[in-house]
Write a structure and sequence with these properties.
Blueprint: H1 2-38, H2 42-55, H3 60-71, H4 81-87, H5 109-120, H6 124-137, H7 145-163, E1 169-172, E2 183-188, E3 194-199, E4 212-213, E5 218-219, E6 222-227, E7 238-239, E8 247-253, E9 259-265, E10 271-278, E11 281-282, E12 286-287, E13 298-303, E14 309-314, E15 324-329, E16 340-341, E17 352-357, E18 363-368, E19 378-383, E20 394-395, E21 410-411, E22 417-422, E23 432-437, E24 447-455, E25 466-472, E26 478-481, E27 489-494, E28 499-506, E29 509-517, E30 524-532, H8 535-539, E31 577-582, E32 585-591, H9 604-620, E33 623-631, H10 642-663, E34 672-674, E35 678-681, H11 694-698, E36 702-707
Parallel strand pairs: 24-30, 33-34, 33-35
Antiparallel strand pairs: 1-23, 2-3, 3-6, 4-5, 6-7, 8-9, 9-10, 10-11, 10-12, 13-14, 14-15, 15-16, 17-18, 18-19, 19-20, 21-22, 22-23, 24-27, 25-26, 25-28, 28-29, 31-32, 32-36, 33-36
C-alpha cells in the first residue's frame, strides 16, 4: 500500500516535468524557426516549422508561418495552401505578436497569402474572396491594401485569359537540356543552332558541390550552352568557362551567338557584362559601359541585331516603380549613349523585366507585373510605330502566360516560335525549358535571314581567316561576319527593300560571290547557303587549270521601230536611265543592278516620261504603251528563274505606270492601254563571273517603254 502511494506521488511529480519539457522544446524550436525565417533561409525555416507543427498541429500561427515560408520559395509555393487554410479557419489576432511563442492565432495578412495561394491553384473566385476579406479587415492605409486590390484585378484578368486561350503548341525541349534542377532563361542564336541557358545543376566535375545558395538550398546559377548537330538535334550541354562561384546567368546573345550578355551577382547588386567567343573560348567578361550599370539592380538586357540600340532593366531611382526598362543608342564614337527611361507606355508602377527585341527591331517582348497581367509576371509585346513610339502592350495570352511568373521569353527570327522556361507537370525537374509554336501570332517579322555553314575541305580545319562580307548596295555599308569555329555556322540579317552583295572570303580572296535582293513585301524569309571549301583555295594554289565554258554568240538586243526610238539603246554609254519625246513617241528606259525589278516613281526621267505620255493622250485621245523587259542569264536569288524575274520587271513597270497616270486622273482601258509585252532573257552564258563581268551582264538588265 505504501509502495502504491509512493508511485502515485512520484507520478504527480514526473508528469508536470514532461509538460514543462515539451513547452520548453516548443519555445526553443519556435524561436529557432523564427530566426531562420527572419534571415530568409526559407528551406531551413520550412524544415524547422514542420518540427514545431508536429508539437501543435492546430496552431494557426505556426500553420501561417509555414505557409508563408512556402510562399517565398521559388519552387514550392503551391504547398502553402493547406497550411494557410488552417491558419484562417479561426479568428485572426487583433494584436498579433510574431515573436511570441504563445501566440496561437494568425495575423490578418494570412488572408492575403491565402488569396495568393488560391490564385496559384486557379481557384480564382476563392482567391478574390480571400483578398476582399483581407481588405475588409485592414484600413486603406495598410501597405498591403493596394496589393490586394491589384491581386483582385489580376484574378479578373486570369479569368478572361483562361476563357480565351491562344493557339499555342508547347513542347518540352527534352532531357538532353533539362535535368532535375531548375533550368531556365534560354537564349537562342538567330538560326536556333545554339542555346545558352541558366541551370542550378550539379556540375559534371562536382566543383560546385559545396557552393550552395542558402536562400534556396540550390546550387548557384551557372551558364551552359548546347549546340544543334547537322540533324537539328540538341547536343549535350557544355559548361561555359566564364562561370564563377557566385551567380552567373544568361541574359541575351548576338544573332550569331558569338557575343553573350550575362548577369553577375557577387555583392547583391546584379550587373550586366558581356563576353565574346574566340574560337572555342569565351573571353573574360567585361562590364557594359555608359551608365548601364549602377549601384542599383540591373537584371536584363537586349541588343538590336545591328547593335545600334539596346534596352535594359534597372530598379534605379527616378523610374515609374520597381524595375523599369531603359534605352541606349550607339553613338558615332562607337560608345553607348546615356540611358533614357522608355516611359509610361511600357513601364508601370509595378515591376518590368526581361526585354527581348525582335530580329527586325520592330517588336519588344518583355515581362511585367503591371498592365493586364493574369498573375505575377506575364509576357507582353509592343510594336514600334513610324513615330518612334511603342504601342500599348498586348498580353501574349494563356496558356503561355499563367498565374505564376512567366519571363525569359526568346522568340525565333520568324516570330512564330519561341523558347521560354516554366514549371509544368510532367517536366524533367523544377523549371524546364520549353519551345512554343505560335502559328497564329499577330507579330510578323519583316526581314530575311541569310544563314548556313562553311565547310572546310575534308580532313582540314576551318581557317581562321574565313569570313562573310555583306555589302548593302543601297547604302554602301559593309559588315563582316565570322563563321563559328566549331562548325562553320554563320548568320546575318538582311533588311527588306535592299540589295546585297555577299562575298565569302578565304585568305583575303573572294572564294565565292552572290547577290541577293530582299523584297519589300513585309514577310519573313530564310536563305540557306552551304559553302564547301576546296583544298586548292585554302592552299592558295593557282596553278590548277580553269575549265573554260564556251560562250555562244550573244543574242542581239531586240529593237522596235528604230527610226522612232528617240533615244539610242544607251548600251555601252554608261547611261542607266533616260527618257525622250520625239516624232510622236514617248520613250523611257531603266537599267537595273542584279536581281532588281523596281524603280522609284519620283525619278526625274520617269516623271518626264509620264508627262510626255500625258501629252500623247491629250493630242491623240488615247495612247498605247509597250513594255519590254529583260534579264541576263545570271541566276536569280529572289526568283525561281530569270523568266520569272523578267516577267516581274514587266509587271512592276506596268503597275507603276498605271499608278502614276491614275494619280493624274487617267484610266486604263479608256485613256491608255498596253500592247502585248516583250519578255527577254539574254546575254552570255553565266560562268560564275558575275563580279568580273558585271558590266556585260548588266547590259541585259533593263526595262524599255514606248508610248505612241
Amino acid at each position: 500500500m505504501k509502495r502504491l502511494l509512493l508511485l502515485s506521488l512520484l507520478s504527480l511529480v514526473v508528469i508536470p516535468s514532461f509538460a514543462q519539457l515539451s513547452s520548453r522544446e516548443f519555445t526553443t524550436q519556435f524561436l529557432e524557426a523564427n530566426r531562420l525565417m527572419e534571415e530568409k533561409y526559407w528551406s531551413e525555416s520550412i524544415d524547422a516549422w514542420k518540427l514545431v507543427l508536429q508539437m501543435d498541429p492546430s496552431n494557426a500561427n505556426v500553420n501561417y508561418k509555414l505557409g508563408y515560408c512556402y510562399m517565398q520559395t521559388a519552387n514550392d509555393k503551391k504547398l502553402a495552401l493547406p497550411f494557410l487554410e488552417v491558419a484562417t479557419s479561426e479568428r485572426v489576432a487583433k494584436k498579433y505578436d510574431p515573436f511570441d511563442p504563445k501566440e496561437k492565432k494568425a495575423p490578418v495578412e494570412a488572408f492575403y497569402y491565402l488569396g495568393n495561394s488560391y490564385h496559384l491553384d486557379y481557384q480564382l473566385d476563392k482567391a478574390t474572396e480571400a483578398f476582399s476579406t483581407f481588405q475588409s479587415k485592414v484600413s486603406k492605409k495598410h501597405f498591403m491594401h493596394r496589393l490586394a486590390e491589384r491581386q483582385i484585378e489580376m484574378c479578373n484578368n486570369a479569368k478572361y485569359q483562361v476563357s480565351h486561350p491562344q493557339n499555342y503548341l508547347i513542347s518540352n525541349v527534352g532531357p538532353v537540356i533539362n535535368e532535375a534542377s531548375n533550368d531556365y532563361s534560354p537564349v537562342i542564336s538567330l538560326d536556333e543552332s545554339s542555346m545558352f541557358f541558366t541551370s542550378r545543376r550539379l556540375r559534371n566535375d562536382s566543383t560546385n558541390e559545396d557552393v550552395i545558395d542558402n536562400s534556396t538550398g540550390e546550387f548557384y546559377e551557372d551558364i551552359y550552352v548546347s549546340y544543334k548537330d547537322k540533324t537539328g538535334t540538341w547536343m549535350e550541354p557544355e559548361l561555359l568557362n566564364i562561370n564563377t562561384d557566385s551567380h552567373a546567368a544568361t541574359i541575351s546573345t548576338s544573332p550569331d551567338g558569338q557575343t553573350l550578355y550575362i548577369y553577375y551577382d557577387e555583392k547583391g547588386d546584379g550587373q550586366i557584362w558581356q563576353s565574346v567567343l574566340f574560337g572555342e573560348t569565351w573571353s573574360d567578361p567585361e562590364m557594359m559601359g555608359s551608365d548601364i550599370n549602377s549601384d542599383a539592380w540591373e537584371t536584363h538586357i537586349t541588343v538590336s541585331a545591328d547593335e545600334q540600340v539596346l534596352y535594359y532593366v534597372s530598379n534605379r531611382e527616378g523610374g515609374f516603380g520597381g524595375r523599369d526598362i531603359y534605352r541606349c543608342v550607339k553613338l558615332p564614337t562607337g560608345e553607348w549613349s546615356q540611358s533614357l527611361n522608355v516611359g509610361a507606355a511600357l513601364n508601370t508602377e509595378w515591376e518590368e523585366d526581361s526585354p527581348f527585341l525582335s530580329a527586325d527591331g520592330k517588336t519588344l517582348y518583355f515581362s511585367s507585373q503591371g498592365h493586364n497581367s493574369m498573375g505575377g509576371f506575364d509576357i507582353f509585346y509592343s510594336t514600334l510605330g513610324d513615330d518612334g513610339e511603342w504601342s500599348k502592350p498586348v498580353n501574349i495570352g494563356y496558356p503561355l502566360n499563367t498565374v505564376e511568373d512567366d519571363a525569359f521569353f526568346a522568340p525565333a527570327a520568324n516570330s512564330k516560335r519561341a523558347y521560354y522556361s516554366s514549371q509544368k507537370e510532367g517536366g524533367y525537374g523544377l523549371k524546364d525549358i520549353y519551345v512554343v509554336d505560335m502559328p497564329d501570332s499577330p507579330v510578323e517579322a519583316d526581314l530575311a535571314v541569310l544563314k548556313g555553314f562553311i565547310y572546310p575541305a575534308e580532313g582540314e580545319e576551318l581557317p581562321d581567316d574565313v569570313f562573310v562580307m555583306v555589302t548593302n548596295k543601297k547604302t554602301g555599308d559593309v559588315t563582316e561576319y565570322r563563321p563559328r569555329q566549331r562548325d562553320g555556322a554563320y548568320i546575318t540579317i538582311l533588311n527588306p527593300c535592299d540589295s546585297y552583295q555577299i562575298d565569302y572570303v578565304v585568305n583575303n580572296d573572294i572564294y565565292q560571290q552572290e547577290f541577293i535582293n530582299v523584297p519589300c513585301d513585309g514577310s519573313y524569309s530564310e536563305i540557306n547557303k552551304e559553302i564547301f571549301l576546296l583544298p586548292v583555295n585554302l592552299a592558295g594554289d593557282n596553278d590548277n587549270p580553269v575549265v573554260d565554258i564556251p560562250v555562244p554568240d550573244e543574242e542581239p538586243v531586240p529593237v522596235i521601230n528604230p527610226n522612232k526610238r528617240g533615244v539610242n539603246d544607251y548600251l555601252g554609254t554608261g547611261v542607266t536611265v533616260g527618257s525622250s519625246f520625239e516624232n510622236g513617241e514617248a520613250y523611257f528606259q531603266r537599267y537595273f543592278v542584279y536581281d532588281f525589278d523596281a524603280f522609284a516613281e519620283e525619278e526625274t526621267e520617269f516623271a518626264e516620261f509620264i508627262n510626255n505620255l500625258v501629252e500623247l493622250i491629250k493630242a491623240n485621245g488615247n495612247a498605247t504603251v509597250l513594255v519590254e523587259s529583260s534579264a541576263s542569264r545570271v541566276p536569280s536569288s529572289r526568283f525561281k528563274n530569270n523568266d520569272e524575274l523578267t516577267a516581274n520587271r514587266n509587271k512592276t513597270a506596268e503597275k507603276q505606270i498605271i499608278a502614276a497616270l491614275s494619280k493624274l486622273g487617267y484610266k486604263k482601258g479608256k485613256d491608255f492601254s498596253f500592247a502585248a509585252p516583250r519578255k527577254l532573257v539574254g546575254g552570255p552564258i553565266y560562268r560564275k563571273d558575275a563580279q568580273t563581268n558585271k558590266a556585260t551582264y548588266e547590259l541585259y538588265q533593263y526595262i524599255k517603254v514606248w508610248a505612241y
